[in-house]
TrEMBL record:
GO terms for biological process: methylation. Pfam families: Methyltransf_28 (PF02636). One of its GO terms (molecular function) is methyltransferase activity. The keyword Transferase applies. PANTHER family: PROTEIN ARGININE METHYLTRANSFERASE NDUFAF7, MITOCHONDRIAL. The keyword Transferase applies. This is SAM-dependent methyltransferase.
Length: 391
């Protein structure tokens, strides 16, 4: 791995990263010196107090490592609230958000509900990090509808929101070799002056490649990710939504927005180095071992696998669309139009942000929207951009 030239962390942040590295080394010692990459990624992102999402560092916006759609503009959350309104009264007047981050999406969503008179009884946030929950509680203190949950409940009927949630779930790495597929895990390299984490392969069960179309035809050396954790999340989500409908008699749905591809594009022969990427101080790079706990580690989403998991668990696939297609049909232009173009200082930043959200050269095509749920009738306009046939 080539040496990276990235901004240096503050001394306290560096100390936290070193503490996390030691925790990873301790776990390696307990498991014969080898860990699945998914376990390494779980520790790097979610280890209590030290992981990227469970520690105290700023993650989002200009002072963080990357920017998400809610951080760019309130139009995003307002448009999702307008979509939610179109699902009422078929669903319960409740929303549940996973991966709420700073709370910006929740605030924009609830502000739109308040302004537009959209009924909402509860806005649940499932938050594992006490540090993030404390930030969200302060940021959302004016919204009594918000309630925090430490884990996914057994039943829920309403709308689930997950913006850039699936991409942050741990993945396993597989490589095609002359002798078949092997799992790429993490081990300690003790041959150098300083101990360093590195990749080491081992044999894996052939069933691990079930997610990969035409796995046997891919070229030797092909490296990719498989998404057992995210698939498990989809199964749990499906059970929760179906239990919610059984309890209330109302429909339930999950709206998942993320960057990714259908399986045939995800596992394309040309994508032979996979999609794993790291984000540190607005720099993207491929080294997951750089300052663990201080950088984000993500992989693109295999939307075919997510949709199939929902279908296998008994849900309906309502739509799969580009972010641009979904937001436009959900009314983002109409939300922007409330601000007069003559109010240049207010209008232009929002118009520029809208362009980033829907432009094919920006987020419009790379980001996709997957809507799954129990039985739900959607307006025909929302289905005009449906691409389910590509999954």
């Amino acid at each position: 791995m080539q040496k990276l030239s990235l901004p240096l962390p503050a001394p306290d942040a560096l100390a936290a990263s070193q503490a996390l590295q030691q925790r990873i080394l301790d776990e390696l010692a307990q498991h014969q010196g080898w860990l699945p990459f998914s376990r390494y990624m779980e520790l790097a992102l979610y280890a209590p107090d030290l992981g990227y999402y469970s520690g105290g560092a700023t993650k989002l916006g200009k002072d963080g490592d990357f920017t998400t759609a809610p951080e760019m503009t309130p139009l995003f959350g307002a448009t999702l609230a307008q979509f939610y309104a179109q699902c009422l009264p078929q669903i319960s007047a409740q929303v549940m958000e996973f991966g709420a981050g700073s709370g910006k999406l929740a605030r924009d969503f609830l502000s739109e509900c308040r302004t537009a008179g959209i009924a909402i009884e509860r806005y649940f946030i499932v938050e594992l990090s006490g540090e993030l929950r404390a930030r969200q509680e302060e940021y959302l203190k004016d919204f009594a509808e918000v309630q925090w949950l430490p884990a996914m409940p057994e039943a829920f009927s309403g709308l689930v929101l997950g913006n850039e949630v699936l991409d942050a779930m741990p993945v396993d790495l597989l490589r095609k070799t002359a002798n078949g597929w092997r799992e790429v895990g993490v081990a300690l390299n003790t041959s150098e002056h300083q101990p360093a984490l590195h990749f080491v392969e081992r044999d894996c069960n052939a069933a691990r490649t079930a997610q990969i179309p035409d796995a046997d035809t891919l070229q030797e050396g092909y490296l990719t990710e498989v998404h057992a954790v995210a698939i498990g999340f989809m199964h749990s989500l499906s059970a929760m939504l179906q239990a919610g409908q059984a309890q209330t008699g109302k429909a339930a749905a999950a709206l998942l927005i993320d960057y990714g591809f259908p399986a045939r594009e995800y596992y394309h022969p040309q994508r032979h180095q996979g999609t794993l990427m790291c984000h540190y101080r607005h720099h993207a790079h491929p080294d997951p071992f750089y300052l663990p706990g201080l950088q984000d580690i993500t992989a693109h989403v295999d939307f075919t696998a997510m949709a199939q998991a929902a279908l296998d668990s008994g849900l309906h696939l309502h739509t799969y669309a580009s972010q641009a297609g979904f937001l436009i049909q959900a009314g983002i232009a109409q939300v922007l139009a409330r601000t007069s173009a003559e109010q240049v200082m207010q209008y232009l930043p929002q118009a520029n942000a809208l362009q980033k959200l829907v432009s094919p050269a920006e987020m419009g095509e790379l980001f996709k929207v997957l809507l799954v749920g129990t039985e739900l009738s959607l307006p025909a306009t929302l289905l005009q951009q449906d691409r389910s046939h590509r999954l």
